[in-house]
Amino acid sequence: MEKALKEYRLSEVRALDTNENEMIIEGYAAVFDEITDMGWYREKVDRHAFDNADMKDCVLKYNHEDSFLILARTRNGSLELKIDDHGLKIRAKLIDTTNNKDVYKMIKEGLLDKMSFGFSVQEQAWDYDTDTRTILRISKLFDVSVVDFPAYDGTDIKTRKKDDYLLEKSKYLEFKTKRKKLELKLKLLDL
């Protein structure tokens, strides 16, 4: 059985102005049916991808960093996740810490305005004619993250291990080649 890869994708976040001294941020960690260029393939997230995903203990992070303190968490209610027609929406109430204040101020000033999500795929579909991967089912959502410098405009692939990326690309190209050979054989049989 293959080990599920942990992947990351990008969206946006904003700070809300409240009359109280609360630090609340909202945004979309994932957007449905939007095609993103991943380099050697294109990708989109199906609108039902999160339907049965394990999101019980998801954390809000900064740049997916384990060394950075957690900003909020579903387990204690400071992070709320909601699936709507647009995507995976997050709402977080940040507690009064130095890190949280800094992140909140940077979001409010527009220095940080993107989000990403860390996940593992349960089911996917490939369109080999257009080299497009559709994520159909996500098995686990590990984190949603405020990110500052994504590798691509629509995604954050910077945190993905290069070896995992190259292995996945190699497997994809091998499968695509086998598929093309099979199509040619079938055409020859029809003649």
Describe the fold and architecture.
The structure is a single chain. This protein has 191 residues and is of the alpha+beta class. The protein has 2 domains: 7-158, no CATH class; 161-191. The protein is built from 2 helices and 10 strands; from the N terminus they run ββββββββαββα. The protein has helices at residues 98-108, 162-190; strands at 7-16, 23-31, 36-37, 42-45, 59-62, 72-73, 79-83, 87-94, 114-127, 132-147. Strands 1, 2, 3, 4, 5, 6, 7, 8, 9 and 10 form a 10-stranded mixed beta sheet that branches. The radius of gyration is 19 Å and the shape is elongated. The termini are far apart. 28% of the residues are buried. The model is unreliable at 150-161 (pLDDT under 50).
Descriptive terms for the model:
alpha+beta, 21% helix, 191 residues, 2 domains, 2 helices
Quick summary:
The protein has 191 residues and is of the alpha+beta class. Helix content is 21%, strand content 39%.
